[in-house]
């Protein structure tokens, strides 16, 4: 049903037992998502006008992907989302009324939260042992991340670009490959960075307060790290 921009209503219940994919992407006038059968695997409500998820969402035990990108009217998710044990991808990018993140399944690998108004990441994120990518681009209210992020053994990509309240370099696992901190207010990189042996890209552009690099950092640069920072900064070693 994607791009059906004139669609405003849909039957309140969809009990189609063989239905695996439901796509209402960019149905910009659709204000309510129907109650759906638990066999759904892919649910895309991107760009709709929904204000909340249906109560049946907590029973979607086979759901792998939940896409709510640019749902500007949705506020916070149901607490029952933690019951979705098959969930791998959650996309809440552009959901500007989202202020907090409930506990989610430990199988989640991709979590997109860019341009939301969350202020903190719960410490329970440390239980997401399979999390590979966390995108927090332009989360202007977000403060520093919990130390529990360092427990994420599968963590490879962290994007904090545009998070203007971030002042402290995040503590991440040694498996991190891409770390983008452009536009944050961090001032220095800790010496522990030398243990991030897998790091391939580090973004520090427009970090106007950044001024300290540990001497051990250059061991990573020589190992083909792609380093990007604003030219003209006075950096101390």
Automatic annotation (TrEMBL):
UniProt entry keywords in alphabetical sequence: Plant defense
Domain Disease resistance protein RPS4B/Roq1-like leucine-rich repeats: 16-98
Keyword Transcription tagged: no
Annotated Pfam families: LRR_13
InterPro entries in UniProt: LRR_dom_sf, RPS4B/Roq1-like_LRR
Gene3D superfamilies referenced in this protein's UniProt entry, alphabetically: Ribonuclease Inhibitor
Protein name as catalogued: Disease resistance protein RPS4B/Roq1-like leucine-rich repeats domain-containing protein
Annotated source species: Hevea brasiliensis (Para rubber tree)
């Amino acid at each position: 049903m994607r791009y059906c921009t004139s669609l405003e209503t849909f039957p309140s219940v969809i009990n189609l037992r063989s239905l695996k994919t439901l796509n209402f992407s960019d149905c910009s006038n659709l204000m309510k998502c129907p109650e759906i059968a638990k066999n759904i695997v892919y649910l895309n409500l991107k760009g709709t006008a929904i204000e909340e998820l249906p109560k049946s969402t907590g029973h979607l035990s086979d759901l792998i992907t939940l896409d709510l990108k640019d749902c500007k009217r949705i506020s916070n998710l149901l607490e029952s989302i933690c019951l979705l044990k098959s969930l791998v991808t959650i996309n809440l990018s552009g959901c500007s009324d989202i202020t907090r993140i409930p506990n989610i399944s430990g199988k989640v690998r991709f979590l997109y939260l860019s341009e939301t108004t969350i202020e903190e990441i719960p410490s329970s994120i440390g239980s997401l042992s399979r999390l590979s990518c966390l995108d927090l681009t332009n989360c202007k209210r977000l403060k520093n991340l919990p130390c529990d992020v360092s427990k994420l053994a599968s963590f490879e990509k962290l994007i904090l670009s545009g998070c203007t309240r971030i002042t402290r370099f995040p503590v991440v696992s040694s498996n991190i490959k891409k770390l983008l901190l452009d536009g944050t207010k961090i001032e220095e990189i800790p010496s522990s960075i030398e243990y991030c042996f897998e790091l391939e890209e580090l973004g520090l552009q427009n970090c106007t307060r950044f001024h300290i690099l540990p001497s051990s950092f250059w061991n990573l640069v020589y190992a083909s790290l792609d380093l990007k920072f604003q030219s003209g900064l006075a950096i101390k070693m």
